[in-house]
UniProtKB/TrEMBL annotation:
Domain OB-fold nucleic acid binding: 16-109
A Pfam match: tRNA_anti_2
GO cellular component: cytoplasm; exodeoxyribonuclease VII complex
Taxon lineage: Bacteria, Pseudomonadati, Pseudomonadota, Alphaproteobacteria, Rhodobacterales
Catalysed reactions, semicolon-separated: Exonucleolytic cleavage in either 5'- to 3'- or 3'- to 5'-direction to yield nucleoside 5'-phosphates
EC number: 3.1.11.6
UniProt subunit comment: Heterooligomer composed of large and small subunits.
Functional summary from the UniProt entry: Bidirectionally degrades single-stranded DNA into large acid-insoluble oligonucleotides, which are then degraded further into small acid-soluble oligonucleotides.
InterPro entries: Exonuc_VII_L, Exonuc_VII_lsu_C, OB-fold_nuc-bd_dom
The name this protein goes by in its record: Exodeoxyribonuclease 7 large subunit
Amino acid sequence: MDLLDDDAAPGNTPEYTVSELSGAVKRTIEGEFGFVRVRGEVGRVSRPRSGHIYLDLKDDNAVISGVIWKGVSQRLQSQPEEGMEVIATGKLTTFPGQSKYQIVIDDIRPAGMGALMAMLEKRKAQLQAEGLFDPARKKPLPFLPEIIGVVTSPSGAVIRDILHRLRDRFPRKVLVWPVAVQGQACAPEVARAIEGFNSMTPGGALPRPDLIIVARGGGSVEDLWGFNEEIVARAAAASAIPLISAVGHETDTTLIDFVSDYRAPTPTGAAERAVPVRLDLLSWVAQQGSRMTNAMGQRLQTRGQRLRDLSRALPRPDSLLDGPRQRLDVLGDRLPGALTRLVDRQRLCLAKQAGSLRPATLARALTHERTRLDDRAARLAPALERLLQTRREALARRGDRLTPRPILREIRAGTDRLATLSRRLDEAQRARLDALSKRLDSLDRLRETLGYRETLRRGYAVVRGDGQVVTTRAAAEAASGLEIEFADGTLKLGGTAPKRSEKPKPPEQGSLF
C-alpha cells in the first residue's frame, strides 16, 4: 500500500480517516516485526491494579514502550525491575489512542545489570558494610511531634499533600526547607537541608523540628538519582532527628530509604505515619475511660456479691461467744481449788527451806559479805580520787579552749543580719505604702470620673424639689420650689429651697437632663 505518492496529482491522492490510517500503520508494523528480540535497560515500571505491567526499554539513544499482559506476567520466572538489562521477546504493535508504537512482550529475561544499577548496588553494598543499614541504629519516631521539618520542593504537589494530610489527622507546626528534587543540585541541597535542621537550637527563635520528612513524587531512576547519592545517604544516617524517607511511589527504592529511620511508601503515607489521628485518640481515650468505669463497676459488684456470700457463711456473733463463755465458767469453778492447792505447795516448799537454815550458816554468810564490803570500801577512795583528778584535767583542757571570740563573732553577724532585715523591712513597708497611696489616688480619680459631678460638667443638671430629687413632671409641679444644680453652681426657682449639706446626695438614675 502506497500511502504517500509524490508523483500522484493532489486530486487523485486517496483520503483516509484517522482510524484507517492508524490501522494501516498498525498492520504494516505488525507484519514487518511480528517477532522480535530486543536488548535494553528497563526504565520506569508501572504495575496498575489490572495486573498488567507497563515499562520502558531504553539504551543510550532511544526508548521503546512495552507492555506485559496479566496472563504473561504471572508466568515470568523473574519480574522486571527498573535498571535491569534484559532481553525481551515479543512483537511490535501500535497504540492508536496515543499515536505511539510499543512492544507486547511474551518473555523477558535478565541480560545483565545496567550501569546505573551496578553503581547503585556497589554503593549500597559499601554503606551496608559500614553498618548504616543496621536496624539497631534506627531511632524510634516520636508519637506526636510538635514541629515537623519537610525537605522537598515548595512548588510541587508533595508539600500540599503532606500539609493536607497533617491538617486532616492532627495539625502540627511544619517547617519547609525548599530544595531541588532532581538534577545536579538535588543531592547537595537535600544533604544541607538535613544538616541544617539538625543544627537548629531546640526552643530557639526558629525551633528545631522533632521529626524530618524527606519527600518527593514518583519518577524514573534518573529523576530519583539524587536520593541515591552517597552524600544524601550519609547525611540521613548522621541525623540526630528521626527521619522518614518518602521518595517516589511504593515501587521506587533509593539509598535514603535504607538509612532512614522509617521508609514511607508515599509522601501521604509519611504524613500519616508522622502523626496519629486526633479523633481516633479522643475516641480511644473516651473508650478506655468507659471501659475503666464499666470494669470498676463490675469489680465492685462482684466483690460486693462475694462479700455478701461470705457473710452468709459466717456464724452469728452470739454463737462465737458461746464456747469461750462456757470455758470461762468451767475455769472459774476450778479456780478456788487450784488456789488452795498452790498455797499448800508453796507452804510446804517454805517449810523445807526454813529447815535448812542455821544461825552458823547465816553468820558465815554475813562475815563473808562484810569482808567483801570492807575490801571494796578501801579501794573506793583512791578510785574516786583518780576519777576526780582525771575530770579536773579534762575540764582544765576544755576551759583553755573556751574563748569569747566565737560568741562575739556570732553576735556581730547576728547584729548585721538584724540590721539588714530591718532595713529591708523598712523599704518593703515604704514600697507597700507608696503602692497603696497610688492605688488610693487612682481610686479617687475613678470616683471623681464616675461621680455625677463629671456628668454635670458635660451639660447635665440635677433638679431637686423640697430637698428631694425630682425625676417626673408631676413631682416638679407639686413641689413648692425647685433647685437646679449645675456644674458651676445652683439656681433656685420659686419657694424656699431647703438647706443642703455640703456634699449633696447623688442623683438617682434618670434625674439628669
